[in-house]
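To: structure desk
From: M.T.
Subject: fold request, one chain
Message: Could you run this one when you get a chance? Sequence is below, nothing fancy, just the single chain.
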Amino acid sequence: METGAEHSFNDQQATYEKELTAELANILNYWMANTVDEQYGGFYGRIDNDNNVIPASPKGAVLNARILWSFSAAYNLDPDKRYLAMANRAYQYIINHFIDAEFGGVYWSVDHLGNPLDTKKQVYASAFTIYALSEYFKATGAGEAKDYAVELYRVLVDKSYDTQRTGYLEAFTKEWQPIADLRLSAKDANEKKSMNTHLHVLEAYTTLYSIWPDGGLRIQIETLINNFLDHVIDSETNHLVLFFDEDWNKKGDTVSYGHDIEATWLLLEAAEAIEHHELTEKVKSVCIKVSDATKQGLDTDGGLWYEYEPAEGHLIKEKHWWVQAEAMVGFYNTWQISNNKEYLELSLRNWAFVKQHILDIQNGEWFWGVYADGSVMHTEDKAGIWKCPYHNSRACIELIKRISRQ
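Reply: Done. Structure tokens follow.
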């Protein structure tokens, strides 16, 4: 017989799943209604906070890959033909405009007409394209998509993998030659290796492995997990180190709370995917420590702050949309592996914060973020190079799956 506590718990989970299902539909409906570029193909490069399309904006590889992943993953959860149509559109645009047929890899951006613009080979962008193509293959069974994903993987291993020290170098020229500016964005450090790139290479390889269980790919995934355990996760603070030189020497001590909590569940997903039981148990233990370190960045309202600079004792008092999305999944995952309901409550409280402060009820989608006083970061994008449907749709999809399995 079900106890009152069990009944309350089950109701709580059912409500969470119901709300996330509705929000996933809201997110996807926004992208279908507002972002399709009927004139020049694909999707608009930028839409501002007030839903104004910014004409002639560059179109980014990361945005387009994340659109492809989001609609493929949504279709795999709920086979709505509208989602498949969006995935097909994103797939064709990526194949026709972003993949470099001559030198391999993907361009960082194209102009609004679809012509190559920034032809730098950023490993991060190739990783997201592998991730998206693999998910699209799951949705469609299109062998061509799988072939493209495998080829992009082989190019990364050939051109970017550091065979001497392990890990991946950040960026190259169009022809895969060394490049002076390795940064993903203006805010990043100009270093040879980064946590962010390695995290999303791991994510991409995990999804690729699910459709192509290659032995060499398995070794790459295991090596990447160990890179995190040996170098990226600081054993003293349990925060992630963000930047390194090519010898894995730490460069800087900025704390990124969103990446901390995101890494916990992506690392576990990867270890479980390759069925490495010893590594899985090790990752579970580390995940709990990193989740506890992440709690330092929680505000009293349940929101998670953006970054912290320990040297100056400076907290960047912004709560970005993607950080909240990762907190929802990461803390839920930590509850599942620890059975400590405190983490479940943190996930639920973060969702309550998102509903109150991050959802744009009037215009749709999620705001970029809010400041300490709760005011919206109005100058940031609603859609753009970095503002994509991926973190929030993925949080909904991942949590819906997890709750349904409880």
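Reply (cont.): The chain has a mean pLDDT of 97. Let me know if you need anything else for the meeting.
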